[in-house]
Amino acid sequence: ANVLNACVHKQQTRVDQLQFLLFDATHSRHMEAITVPEVLLPASSVDMGKWAVVACDQYTSEPAYWQDVATIVGKEPSTLKITFPEVYLKDSEAHKKQRIAAIQNEMRSYVEKRFLVPHKGFVLVERVVDNVMRRGLMVAIDLDKYEYTPTAQTLVRPTEGTIVERLPPRIAIRSGAPLELPHIMILIDDPKCTVIEPLAAQKDKLPKLYSTELMKHGGRVHGFAVPQPYQDQVCKAIAALASPEVQTEKYGKDHAPLVFSVGDGNHSLATAKAVWEQLKAHGADPATHPAKYALVELTNVHDTGLAFEPIHRVLFNLKVDMLQAVKEHFEGRFSFEKRDNAQQMIKEVREYGNKAPHKFGFIAHDAVGVVTIQNPSHTLVVGTLQPFLDKFLKDNGAAEGDIDYVHGDDVVCDLGSKAGNCGFFLPCMNKSDLFPGVIHNGVVPRKTFSMGHAHEKRFYLEARKISM
User: Fold this and answer.
1) In 3-state terms, what secondary structure has residue 184?
2) What is the pLDDT of residues 141-176, one digit of tens each?
3) What is the DSSP letter of 54?
4) What pLDDT sits at residue 90?
5) Rounded CA gap, 413 and 343, in Å?
6) Hey, which residues does 129 pair with through a beta bridge?
7) What is the helix (H) or strand (E) element at residue 210, kind and residue range?
8) What is the DSSP letter of 146?
9) Strands of the 403-406 sheet, one edge to the other
10) Does residue 290 contact residue 468 with C-beta atoms inside 8 Å?
11) What is the C-alpha to C-alpha distance for residues 165 and 173, in angstroms, rounded to an integer?
């Protein structure tokens, strides 16, 4: 088993680099799990209100949202122009290639025009949206300590299944890009609040790096530098989370230690891993190449400002009676009861949760109600529904664009009620069950939960160099 050994400082010619080290007793070697990144932040000449935009995997069925963002940004420097909103993944291959080339050219232009300035160190992030504060810490994750396979036993693991078929277009975007901009959020299981919260309690002593309002109801975000003494404090606290005593106390014996779980941006981190493996295969030096790491925001799963929300499903361009298809798949275990309106359905499914028998909402243009599935084999409702959806899409030759994974009650109800569509409304899992579940049962079904609604998602703000 991997046992945490020490935190050390490495003196470099220009900067002191703190690294979190783990000792592999089996192979007698040290392994770096996180490192202090060199973060690129927008220069003082940049309008940060137009610079920062929400994660590219949001509003994927709402092109009007992104058109509005483009209007707000105008000709100003913006992360909109150096990221690829996934709403446009449905464009033609020619348009996607043009967009990728434009993104990479814009990145180089921003570097040349010095729109980005370097800052070496962790960054404490405070995000306030809808009067709720969530805290995080910008760090760099070692991609050699991460695997996205369902049976991964690495220190950094996915929490949900990875759709490998979704990686190629994302790999095309990252390959050859000089910069990365993260919306990846990595969770730590820190119920005693020892890693991030002590920094927040001392934020008045930390230099402020940025503060800005975020567009389209995104709230406000503040960033603080974390000087060296506080970096030591962070490192020691993470070391304690990885200790055999703490791991056994929380999760029991006989398991590989788990310290970092991917909360948001699962496919983005898997893409970074895939590109790094390609670079290594072509001779990239792990000792010097910046693409060995990925910039992420570290967040405590027990942060009071962090809410788990369900991710609902919407199917488009249906040619069959979807409710009948569900009935035929689950046979005698299936039953359906209509409700007078969507709010009744939502209240029932939400309050019932993931108990057996499983219940989920169904929305179509001519019906809304609750589906019940007796004798489920999975502990989560999404684990009962998703295999059916996968099989249905495969059997019917549907494309990726014929299903969307959406946040928000109103979105699934609005899209699902349109002619030719249907929506599935799901309950959410308890966030305290996440780490024990991943350790003992492996990854949860993909798109099981979301950390907040779409407008609460991480906004692109910080960047990092990933090319030599």
Assistant:
1) coil
2) 999 999 999 889 999 999 988 889 889 999 999 999
3) E
4) 87
5) 10
6) 132
7) strand 208-214
8) B
9) 334-338, 367-373, 358-364, 422-425, 312-315, 403-406
10) yes
11) 15
CA 305-39-128 angle, 5° bins: 20
Average pLDDT over residues 181-187: 96
Q: Which of residues 53 and 407 earns the better pLDDT score?
A: 53
Tokens of 353: 């949760």
Residue 15 has pLDDT above 60, yes or no: no
**Under 8 Å between Cβ of 221 and 127:** yes
- Report strand pairing: 293-300 vs 185-188: parallel
Average of per-residue pLDDT values in the chain: 91
Instruction: Note the pLDDT tens digit of each residue in 223-273.
Output: 999 999 899 999 999 999 999 999 999 999 988 999 999 999 999 999 999
Contact 170/268 with Cβ under 8 angstroms? Answer: yes
Enclosing H/E stretch for 270: helix 266-281
Give per-residue burial for 434-453: e unless 16+ CB within 10 Å, then b.
Answer: bbebbbeeebbbbbbbbbbb
CB 245 within 8 Å of CB 257: no
Return the DSSP state at 443.
P
Q: Is the pLDDT of residue 420 over 90?
A: yes
Locate 190 and state its tokens.
């820190």
**Which letter does DSSP use for residue 331 in this model?**
G
Is residue 30 within 8 Å of residue 23, measured between CB atoms?
A: yes
* pTM for the model: 0.83
| 162 within 8 A of 148, measured Cβ to Cβ | yes
Could you tell me if 139 and 133 are in contact, meaning their C-beta atoms sit under 8 angstroms apart? no
**Distance from C-alpha of 153 to C-alpha of 147, rounded to nearest angstrom:** 8
Copy the structure tokens of residue 176. Answer: 């050859």
Nearest to 157 by CA among 42, 323, 270: 270
Beta carbons within 8 Å of 160's beta carbon, 6+ residues apart: 262, 266, 443, 444, 445, 446, 447, 448
Alpha helices in 289-408 (DSSP H): 322-330, 342-352, 381-395
Give the least confident one: 197-201, 207-211, 256-260, 458-462. Answer: 256-260
